[in-house]
Amino acid sequence: FELIGNFTFSEFLFSLGSTCFLNIFYSVTYGVFEKLRVRGPKPLMYWGTVGRHNQVYYLDDYECAKKYGRVWGLYELRRPMLAVMDPEMLKIILVKECFTHFTNRRNFRLNGDLYDAVNIAEDDQWRRIRNQVTPSFTSGRIKEMFNIMQHHSYKMVVGLQSKVDNSEVITMKDIFGPYSMDVMASCVFSVDLDSINEPSNPFITHASKLFRFPVPLFLFQGFFPFFLPLLKFLGVSLFPKSSTSFFRTVVEKIRAERNESSKTNVADILQYFINYQTKTLTKVMENQGLNDHEILSQVTMLIFAGYETSATTLTFLAYTLARNPEVMKHLQQEIDSTFPEKGPIRYESLIQMGYLSSVVDECLRLYPPAARLERMAKETVKIKGITIPKNMIVMVPVYALHRDPELWPNPEEFKPERFSKKNKQSINPYTYLPFGIGPRNCLGMRFALVMIKLALVKVLQNYSFLVCDETEIPLRMHPEGLMGPLQPIKLKLQKRSLNSADLDN
Ligand code: HEM
């Protein structure tokens, strides 16, 4: 072959061919938003727009919102994803068109045993399962479970006593994690784990693992999506098998014990599902109940959906209150006047506490554990002039939405008054989404709020949160999974000098 410069002709053809191929690949893969006339960060080959501005995905969203406004296009590796934080569009996507075009979240189809959990199930199956799970969280049911929550909040505060007496620096997750897990396990299947006294409990280790997607697997399926059916066939799952099997074994054992002793008067969520169960698939299709496998999946999923989110929220609450002592003082005044002399916490009074509610709402604005929501377009639709093609993921950047300066003046500041009774009325519901909104919103929202408020009131009746040398300020955030700090949040607690009774309940 003739030499062209230092190349042989075949080498020259090969590099020309490769360059053409890569150019075509790039424009086909990464030309989607250009065609739709949607702006966004420039994608890198293979990598897409992941972490273009910040390694932490929701901080990246925040930067994009500043640069591109309320709608922009992203590529998660090769997958296009439309980010929407325009309230009018959100109303259509999350509420009006939920049952028609936007019923489901993205589904990797690598869900292992949890394929029929309510957060993963799709379309008619999701609707049927959701209808079965929802009645477990009515006000009446939550009120029934309040006694259980009280029991665990009491144990949590007693557990704190020696640590405070010894002036220990306390890792907040070590207190609120076990509390959340104990409440969830007791309410879901009546097992008193006593994690507060045994923090290395396998329930906690396994539930934590369920929230951390394995990054190598995530990257592999992103780069080579055509291998997905093979991975599914091989039983590969984004949820660690050891953890799902752990929960499966526990629930199966509890069920077997109940069958043997015909104990049907237990008032937990598992028993509620069993009581409404029908045995045959045909009846299940007639919207009569959950089958055995579905019961198992819902129980496992409720434990992990409730544990990490509630524990994280309590941890951020402790941190923000320690950093805003005047707010904490105001809240303690409300607590003391609602429950004088550290008196027992009554359900009705707790849920009516205005300032407490504002503090929790404001904390969830600054630190929403689910920093993004997702829906998948079932068909091509046009919303406010923007075409959303079939199978496109619509992502709601909740963190960025909650810190939009046009919606929230001085968004970085912790100001519970934003959510006072008067101010709350002027908040557009599509701009504040810690629990999502619409038919597919958080199923455990009211349950979570009661459990969080109770724990907070119980601790603040007796102690105040204090920042110490070990408290990281400002916080660095964890780049993966649910929103959370990179390093555990550490604080000190100070005993309140009220001349009243002891920890009593
Ligand atoms: C502070 C605590 C919590 C937060 C911030 C939170 C937040 C969320 C969010 C943002 C979603 C997605 C909503 C959407 O896509 O529109 C969700 C879904 C869900 N949450 Fe929660 N959650 C919390 C606690 C709980 C608890 C305690 C439970 C159960 C007892 C629970 C059960 C669920 C379930 C089952 C779903 C899936 C609903 C469906 O797909 O139909 N969550 N949650």
Automatic annotation (TrEMBL):
Q: Name one GO molecular function term.
A: heme binding
| Cell compartments where the protein resides | Endoplasmic reticulum membrane; Microsome membrane
- Amino-acid positions noted as binding heme in the UniProt annotation, renumbered to this chain: C442
The enzyme's E.C. designation: 1.14.14.1
According to UniProt, the reaction catalysed is:
an organic molecule + reduced [NADPH--hemoprotein reductase] + O2 = an alcohol + oxidized [NADPH--hemoprotein reductase] + H2O + H(+)
Topologically, how does it sit relative to the membrane?
Peripheral membrane protein
Q: Which residues cross the membrane?
A: 12-33, 217-239
**Co-factor(s):** heme
Q: Which UniProt keywords apply?
A: Endoplasmic reticulum, Heme, Iron, Membrane, Metal-binding, Microsome, Monooxygenase, Oxidoreductase, Transmembrane, Transmembrane helix
Q: Which InterPro entries match?
A: Cyt_P450 (IPR001128), Cyt_P450_CS (IPR017972), Cyt_P450_E_grp-I (IPR002401), Cyt_P450_sf (IPR036396), Cytochrome_P450_3A (IPR050705)
Q: Please give the PROSITE patterns that the UniProt record associates with this protein.
A: CYTOCHROME_P450
Known Gene3D superfamilies for this protein?
Cytochrome P450
GO (cellular component) term, any one = endoplasmic reticulum membrane
Q: Briefly state the protein's biological role.
A: Putative steroid 6-beta-hydroxylase.
Per the record, the similarity remark reads:
Belongs to the cytochrome P450 family.
* Name of the protein in its database record: unspecific monooxygenase
